[in-house]
Amino acid sequence: QSALTQPASVSGSPGQSITISCTGTSSDVGGYNYVSWYQQHPGKAPKLMIYEVSNRPSGVPDRFSGSKSGNTASLTISGLQAEDEADYYCSSYTSSSTKVFGGGTKLTVL
Amino acid sequence: QVQLVQSGAEVKKPGASVKVSCKVSGYTLTELSMHWVRQAPGKGLEWMGGFDPEDGETIYAQKFQGRVTMTEDTSTDTAYMELSSLRSEDTAVYYCALWNDGYNYAFDIWGQGTMVTVSS
After folding, report:
1. B20 in Cβ contact with B69 (< 8 Å)
2. CB–CB contacts below 8 A, A to B
3. b/e per residue, B91-103, with b = 16+ CB within 10 A?
């Protein structure tokens, strides 16, 4: 199972919006709505930000949103804030009942 | 509220085995789907395996099959991940994480991580 493809880095200024893509195949991202996104600050455990493509857990700001088209899922963060600077990972359920992560994207808030 | 508390850092020699524990509090392990994810220094997250409630079995990533064993002690609500034949590339932080099957189909609870260093 190959890792999902994410851009290595994205950046944006405070208040702006950014989008991180996550590309897989019809056996994972494209085949199921079980795509999730995680935020990880340095030295910390990952934190769930989006589940089932576009749902936010309680406590996650509505500035975070998710979507999917075909084999590509996306995470959008609007109204960027300094504390959003972190690494972001997508993940998907797969046809073999395994799970797979993306390579991760480093978000820099300029 | 469910919490996961992992065992402390380990230093192992190449060829040895390591066993990391993950204690569940606030819930019963038998009703949860425990998984393990690792992260090498400066690298991304890598799913290693976990319990599949649909089949009632533990499934492993192909990369680790034959070298990893995930077990549970239901009497103490503790999960274990044992990795054998360690090599330097296994140096990583190992996380236990709960897959919420049937609700959000995501890893919604994570342990704090256990650093495993493989060095001669």
Report:
1. no
2. 70
3. bbbbbbbbbbbee
